[in-house]
Each structure stands twice: as structure tokens, then as C-alpha cells.
């Protein structure tokens, strides 16, 4: 082969490009067979030069070997015949190219992808064991009985009809409520591999379907990339945050997703980069979303929505004790011999350091405690080892009668201490670890001062013009303060706090309603008939950096304004939600369970809801309702 490469290199390059010595060497090489035997050094020089020339032409054996091994890999990939034909065509093109040539790299990467895709590789499908699946779900997740029941039903249908074209399960709920881990339990129950594809922020259709290869820097879409990474063609694929995809000028990712999820079309899913169809019909899709409302309707139509609204403090405590703490300790290589986190401490973490619907921050704080314990254990380990080494050294020296050797400088102490211990007859060889007991003081050292103290609401509504609202965001329900103030002006309304159009309109409606009812409400008016005469109103929604929108702040806005004009503070223990029309009708709003849980988390004990939302109270856990006064 080297002769072949050699002759090729001569034919491609202008002979004038070689320096004279090179030409002579070449001549020497061709004369090798019939001339006198060459010396070893001369032969070595010639070999070196051949290598240099091949390198320069990019024709070294390594590249040849590489292409050959790529071809072998492609043959083993078991591509369908039409794909194989296409791949061979591409491989022939690659063979004709020089590695430095533009397009060589992309062509190679493309063929590597074809060879890497699991055309035939699938996880072996066993019959689904429903009892084992239930045990697994129970052992990995606390509570969630309705959700687990629904998952078992789903698995039962798959067991009876493995190719059932049922809807795609979609877990909807705030972060940290166990959506991802439930999906991974489904993969476990089906004995399939699990892959998560994050769709949050995907605005470009090409993110799902790939860029055509003519595009510079083109890549396969996330779906094909995920399948390549997971290495089987029948994984459980979690389409995470499916509600966060949005259409813009670069196409509509939702339409690409629809194709992926459509059993009629997904046998021949066409990724633009791949340019040959790939069968994704064996993939089991599961989706997650934070909010259902944001999901494109056609997608929602293909999903079976399972809601996970968030946990009560009691549920969080149980989850922490039964699942999070053991998991966190294991992840940090420590055991309960090293750290003890008693229940009251976990309660403190839940109340003072977290304010969330799920358990993500709780888990993060527990990890911080575990890290602190790990440092303590590692330090102790090191000092034990040090003591042990010292003991060995000292013992050896004493045994050898060399005590005098160590009576030098800093080592004196060492000698004295070690001999002292030796005299007592026992060295601390294996010290049983003292667990780090996490109490309030340790919490403050590790996690810092508490973030929430339950007095926030009281402090913030101390002045007239502030009301407590309940809103629904993608991280679950939240308590929101609405602040309003009046100043000298021309009767304008100023709104701040990154508000969307709907919430701005709610503020307008609230102000109009209060102005129209000023007499009925007996609001002190500067001059008959005008609340706004020579004054401006400013309404602010903290936190100012978080975008807000939606109609459910209507009632809260009215309350804040009435409080402002009447110069009377609102009750700090009362939060409210509800949309208000211009005529003062209160319309029902969504997310009641999340909102009540949020109010409870913040220590609010009275909630005012639209009358027509009363039916939603059924969903709220009884222990929470018992602690609250809810009025319509
Ligand atoms: P999500 O996908 O909803 O954001 P994750 O599935 O990532 O949430 O959950 C975050 C962590 O909380 C995981 O470690 C998960 O196992 C744990 N977790 C959440 N809910 C439960 C539960 N009910 N029981 C046990 N662990 C839970």
C-alpha cells in the first residue's frame, strides 16, 4: 500500500515541489529492487520521508485505517437497506476526499452518527410485572397514591397490548415534585433505558428536527441525539418542560413534536440532519410540564395530563426522612453514624429555609449538611491516619533504641506525646465516629441565617395600601404582595413590577371600580366626586424582577386600593385571589390547591376565594384545610 500511496503522491504533486534531496531519495526508492542493497540508515531516512510526504498529503495509514474501521462499524450497525445504500454512497465520497479538504470532517461526523445510531439495538422487552412495578413506585416515592394508580393503569394497558397507541403521559406540576423520578420509575418498570430531553426554551424547530447538512455547524435534533446517547431504539424518553417550547420565526417546535408523538408518522421520523428516516415508534414517550395552560392545544390533545400540585409540610417531612436523607447520605459517602438529622431539624429547614411547592431546595439544603459532615469525617480520617503513622514511626524508633534520633527541633513534641500514649498502653487506632448532630445552631452555621421567619406578611402589610394576593406561577402557588401608594400628580396610574398586559388591565379595572364606588365605600375624598384629583397612584408588584401576568390579582388590587384610600391596613393573616370584572363580579380562577398550599407555607391562616371556586377545595389536603379559614 505504501508504494501505491507513494505513486499517488507523485502524480498529484508537482515534482518541482520536492527538494532535490527528496527527488534523489525517490529515485533511490524505485531503484531499490534491482540496485545494490541499501544501508539501514538510508532506508530509515527514506521511510521517514515517505511518512512526512503522506502526512503532508493527509494520506497516512491512520486515516485509511480509520475509514476502514468506520466502514466496519457501519456494517455492524444493522441499518435498513435504503439507509445502508445512502451510507455507502456517503462513504465512497469520503474515501475520495483528503482529510484536509473542506467537508471531510462533516461527512465523517455524519457517517459516525449513522454508525452510532441504534438501528437494531433495543432493550429486551420482558413482560411487565405489575406487582413489582407497584412496589418500585412505592419504594421510591412517598404518597402520590392517585398518580401511582394512574401509572399502574398505564402499565397494565401496555402489558395487555404492548403496541397500544394510548396517549402520552404528561406530568404537570411545579419543579421538584417528582415528575422526572416518576418517569424514570416507569422506565424501570418497563425494563427500558431512560433518557431525558430538555425542551425548556426551545424556540427553533431545528432543535427538535435538526439542521440540514448544508447549514454550517449543523447538528442532529435533540431527539436523534438523545437516541444516539441512550444507545437503544426503545428507551423511555422524557420530554422535559414540553410547555416551554414556543413558536417564533424559526418555526414551530410543537409541530415537530406532534410528528414525533403521532403513531402514524413516527415510524419514519425525518431528522433534517440525518436525512434518512429513523423509526421512533418503539420509544415510550413521557412528558413533563410546569403549567398546562401554556401548552399548545394540539400537543395537549395527545397527552394524558396527570397533575402533581405540590406537597404539604407534613408530606415534605416524610419525604425527607424516608427518601431524601438516605439518598443524600449515600451520595456523599457517609452514613447515619456520621450525621444525625432529627425530625425537628428537618421541620426547621422546611419552615425557615425553603418556600417551595416541591422538595428541590430541601434536598439541596440536606446535601449541604451532608457535605459539612463529609468534611468533618474526611478531616478526622486524615488526623487519625496521621496519628497512626506517627505511632508506627515512634514505635519503630523506640524498638530500634533510636529515641535520640528524633529529639530534634519540632519533632520533640511528637516523641513526647507518642511515648506518653504508648505508656498508657493504647493508641487511638480506630476511633468510632461521633455523629454530627444537626440542631438549630449547626443549621445556622451550615445554611446561614434563616431565610423566612413567618413575620414577613405582618411587616409588609403594616402600612395602608398593601394587600396579600395568591398567584399561580410555574413554580407552584405563591404569595404576592400588591403595594400601592398615592402622591401629588395629575390623576395618572403608574404600574411597575414587570407586568403583562392582562395584569395591567386588571389594575385599570380595579382603579375604575374603586373610583366609581368611592361614595358607597365611604372613602375620604379630597373634593367631591374625585378620588384622583391632583394625585397619581402607583401600584407595584414585588419582586420586581419576576415577570407577572394573569387576571387573578383583580381582587387583591381592589383591596390594596381601598386600603390606600381609606387609610386602613389590611389584615396580615389574610390572602385572597380572584378575577374581577368592571362591574364588580368575581370570577373563579385556577390553581386553588397550589395557592392554598402556598398561603399555608407562608403562615397565612385566612384565605378569601371566589365563591365559584369552593368546589376546588376538595382537592386540598384535609390537614391544611383544618388549619385555615376559607371564605368565599
Ligand atoms: P421534577 O422533575 O418534578 O422537577 P424531580 O423528579 O427531579 O422533580 O424530584 C426532585 C427530587 O425530589 C428527586 O430526588 C425526587 O426523587 C425527590 N422526590 C420528589 N417527590 C418525591 C416523593 N413523593 N417521594 C420521594 N422522593 C421524591
TrEMBL record:
<dbReference type="InterPro" id="IPR008268">
    <property type="entry name" value="Peptidase_S16_AS"/>
</dbReference>
<keyword id="KW-0547">Nucleotide-binding</keyword>
<feature type="domain" description="Lon proteolytic">
    <location>
        <begin position="461"/>
        <end position="632"/>
    </location>
</feature>
<dbReference type="GO" id="GO:0004252">
    <property type="term" value="F:serine-type endopeptidase activity"/>
</dbReference>
<keyword id="KW-0378">Hydrolase</keyword>
<comment type="similarity">
    <text>Belongs to the peptidase S16 family.</text>
</comment>
<dbReference type="GO" id="GO:0016887">
    <property type="term" value="F:ATP hydrolysis activity"/>
</dbReference>
<feature type="region of interest" description="Disordered">
    <location>
        <begin position="1"/>
        <end position="46"/>
    </location>
</feature>
<dbReference type="InterPro" id="IPR054594">
    <property type="entry name" value="Lon_lid"/>
</dbReference>
<feature type="compositionally biased region" description="Acidic residues">
    <location>
        <begin position="17"/>
        <end position="26"/>
    </location>
</feature>
<keyword id="KW-0645">Protease</keyword>
<dbReference type="InterPro" id="IPR020568">
    <property type="entry name" value="Ribosomal_Su5_D2-typ_SF"/>
</dbReference>
<keyword id="KW-0720">Serine protease</keyword>
<dbReference type="GO" id="GO:0004176">
    <property type="term" value="F:ATP-dependent peptidase activity"/>
</dbReference>
<dbReference type="GO" id="GO:0005524">
    <property type="term" value="F:ATP binding"/>
</dbReference>
<dbReference type="InterPro" id="IPR014721">
    <property type="entry name" value="Ribsml_uS5_D2-typ_fold_subgr"/>
</dbReference>
<feature type="active site">
    <location>
        <position position="552"/>
    </location>
</feature>
<protein>
    <recommendedName>
        <fullName>Lon proteolytic domain-containing protein</fullName>
    </recommendedName>
</protein>
<dbReference type="InterPro" id="IPR004815">
    <property type="entry name" value="Lon_bac/euk-typ"/>
</dbReference>
<dbReference type="Pfam" id="PF22667">
    <property type="entry name" value="Lon_lid"/>
</dbReference>
<dbReference type="InterPro" id="IPR027065">
    <property type="entry name" value="Lon_Prtase"/>
</dbReference>
<dbReference type="Pfam" id="PF00004">
    <property type="entry name" value="AAA"/>
</dbReference>
<dbReference type="InterPro" id="IPR027417">
    <property type="entry name" value="P-loop_NTPase"/>
</dbReference>
<dbReference type="Pfam" id="PF05362">
    <property type="entry name" value="Lon_C"/>
</dbReference>
<dbReference type="InterPro" id="IPR003593">
    <property type="entry name" value="AAA+_ATPase"/>
</dbReference>
<dbReference type="InterPro" id="IPR003959">
    <property type="entry name" value="ATPase_AAA_core"/>
</dbReference>
<dbReference type="InterPro" id="IPR008269">
    <property type="entry name" value="Lon_proteolytic"/>
</dbReference>
<dbReference type="GO" id="GO:0006508">
    <property type="term" value="P:proteolysis"/>
</dbReference>
<dbReference type="GO" id="GO:0030163">
    <property type="term" value="P:protein catabolic process"/>
</dbReference>
<keyword id="KW-0067">ATP-binding</keyword>
<feature type="active site">
    <location>
        <position position="595"/>
    </location>
</feature>
Amino acid at each position: 500500500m505504501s508504494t501505491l500511496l507513494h505513486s499517488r503522491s507523485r502524480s498529484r504533486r508537482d515534482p518541482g515541489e520536492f527538494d532535490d534531496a527528496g527527488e534523489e531519495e525517490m529515485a533511490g526508492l524505485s531503484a531499490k529492487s534491482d540496485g545494490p542493497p541499501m544501508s539501514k540508515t538510508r532506508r530509515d531516512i527514506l521511510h521517514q520521508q515517505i511518512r512526512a510526504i503522506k502526512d503532508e498529503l493527509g494520506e497516512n495509514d491512520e486515516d485509511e485505517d480509520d475509514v476502514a474501521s468506520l466502514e466496519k462499524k457501519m456494517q455492524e450497525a444493522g441499518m435498513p437497506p435504503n439507509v445502508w445504500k445512502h451510507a455507502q454512497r456517503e462513504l465512497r465520497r469520503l474515501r475520495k476526499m483528503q482529510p484536509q479538504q473542506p467537508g471531510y470532517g462533516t461527512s465523517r461526523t455524519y457517517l459516525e452518527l449513522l454508525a452510532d445510531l441504534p438501528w437494531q439495538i433495543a432493550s429486551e422487552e420482558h413482560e411487565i410485572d405489575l406487582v413489582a412495578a407497584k412496589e418500585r413506585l412505592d419504594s421510591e416515592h412517598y404518597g402520590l397514591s392517585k398518580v401511582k394508580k394512574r401509572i399502574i393503569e398505564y402499565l397494565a394497558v401496555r402489558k395487555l397490548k404492548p403496541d397500544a397507541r394510548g396517549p402520552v403521559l404528561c406530568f404537570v406540576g411545579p419543579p421538584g415534585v417528582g415528575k422526572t423520578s416518576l418517569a424514570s420509575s416507569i422506565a424501570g418498570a418497563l425494563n427500558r433505558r431512560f433518557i431525558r430531553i430538555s425542551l425548556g426554551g426551545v424556540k427553533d424547530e431545528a432543535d427538535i428536527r435538526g439542521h440540514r447538512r448544508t447549514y454550517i455547524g449543523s447538528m442532529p435534533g435533540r431527539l436523534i441525539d438523545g437516541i444516539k446517547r441512550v444507545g437503544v431504539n426503545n428507551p423511555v424518553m422524557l420530554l422535559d418542560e414540553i410547555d416551554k417550547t414556543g413558536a417564533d420565526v424559526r418555526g414551530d417546535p410543537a409541530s415537530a413534536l406532534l410528528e414525533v408523538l403521532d403513531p402514524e408518522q413516527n415510524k419514519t421520523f425525518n431528522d433534517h440532519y440525518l436525512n434518512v428516516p429513523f423509526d421512533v415508534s418503539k420509544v415510550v414517550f413521557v412528558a413533563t410540564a410546569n403549567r398546562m395552560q401554556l401548552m399548545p392545544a394540539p400537543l395537549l390533545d395527545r397527552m394524558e395530563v396527570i397533575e402533581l400540585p405540590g406537597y404539604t409540610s407534613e408530606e415534605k417531612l416524610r419525604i425527607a426522612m424516608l427518601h431524601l436523607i438516605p439518598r443524600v447520605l449515600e451520595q456523599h459517602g457517609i452514613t447515619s453514624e456520621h450525621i444525625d438529622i432529627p425530625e425537628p431539624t428537618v421541620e426547621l429547614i422546611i419552615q425557615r429555609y425553603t418556600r417551595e411547592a416541591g422538595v428541590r431546595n430541601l434536598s439541596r439544603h440536606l446535601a449541604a449538611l451532608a457535605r459539612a459532615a463529609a468534611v468533618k469525617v474526611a478531616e478526622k480520617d486524615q488526623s487519625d491516619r496521621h496519628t497512626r503513622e506517627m505511632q508506627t514511626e515512634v514505635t519503630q524508633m523506640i524498638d530500634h533504641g533510636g529515641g535520640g534520633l528524633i529529639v530534634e527541633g519540632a519533632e520533640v513534641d511528637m516523641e513526647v506525646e507518642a511515648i506518653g500514649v504508648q505508656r498508657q498502653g493504647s493508641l487511638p487506632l480506630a476511633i468510632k465516629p461521633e455523629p454530627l448532630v444537626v440542631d438549630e445552631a449547626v443549621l445556622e452555621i451550615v445554611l446561614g441565617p434563616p431565610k423566612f421567619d413567618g413575620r414577613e406578611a405582618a411587616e409588609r402589610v403594616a402600612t395602608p395600601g398593601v394587600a396579600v394576593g395568591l398567584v399561580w406561577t410555574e413554580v407552584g402557588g405563591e404569595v404576592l404582595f400588591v403595594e400601592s401608594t398615592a402622591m401629588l400628580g395629575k390623576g395618572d396610574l403608574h404600574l411597575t413590577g414587570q407586568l403583562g398586559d392582562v395584569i395591567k388591565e386588571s389594575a385599570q379595572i380595579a382603579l375604575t371600580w374603586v373610583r366609581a364606588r368611592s361614595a358607597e365605600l365611604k372613602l375620604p375624598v379630597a373634593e367631591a366626586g374625585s378620588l384622583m384629583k391632583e394625585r397619581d397612584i402607583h401600584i407595584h408588584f414585588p419582586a420586581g424582577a419576576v415577570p407577572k401576568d394573569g387576571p387573578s390579582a383583580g381582587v387583591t388590587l381592589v383591596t390594596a386600593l381601598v386600603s390606600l384610600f381609606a387609610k386602613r391596613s389590611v389584615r396580615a393573616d389574610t390572602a385572597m385571589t380572584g378575577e374581577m370584572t368592571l362591574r364588580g363580579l368575581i370570577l373563579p380562577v385556577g390553581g386553588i390547591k397550589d395557592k392554598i398550599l402556598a398561603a399555608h407555607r407562608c403562615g397565612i391562616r385566612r384565605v378569601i376565594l371566589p365563591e365559584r371556586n369552593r368546589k376546588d377545595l376538595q382537592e386540598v389536603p384535609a390537614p391544611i384545610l383544618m388549619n385555615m379559614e376559607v371564605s368565599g
